[in-house]
What we know:
Blueprint: H1 3-11, H2 21-30, E1 32-36, E2 41-43, E3 51-64, E4 67-72, E5 77-78, H3 80-85, E6 92-105, H4 106-115, H5 117-141
Helix pairs in contact: 1-2, 4-5
Amino acid sequence: xxxxxxxxxxxxxxxxxxxxxxxxxxxxxxxxxxxxxxxxxxxxxxxxxxxxxxxxxxxxxxxxxxxxxxxxxxxxxxxxxxxxxxxxxxxxxxxxxxxxxxxxxxxxxxxxxxxxxxxxxxxxxxxxxxxxxxxxxxxxxxxxxx
Length: 146
């Protein structure tokens, strides 16, 4: 994939929408390109969080305690919780089919957040939506009191 194609892909990631193309080009340039085959792991639950991943193509299954909890596809960003919260990875990520990834290092991701407040606001929005969804699911799973 060319840098121009990577810039186009990054512009479709909700977290990075609104960033200037020159900043997206820099982000694409400093990121690592990775390819995973079906069943390969991007990372394991409990690992140190040293990067976030942008799915350029393909699909990634998300496992928590060996249970598949989600699948994410093209233009998703995953793995950001570990680097934002400075905690071990909260999930295992496994490629479904051939998957192409841009890996953004922790340092570069944190610099991006510091430089662009819009990215910080979008991260807060995404994390708040995830928290709301989890809270709702927990409430539905809890047995009603009698």
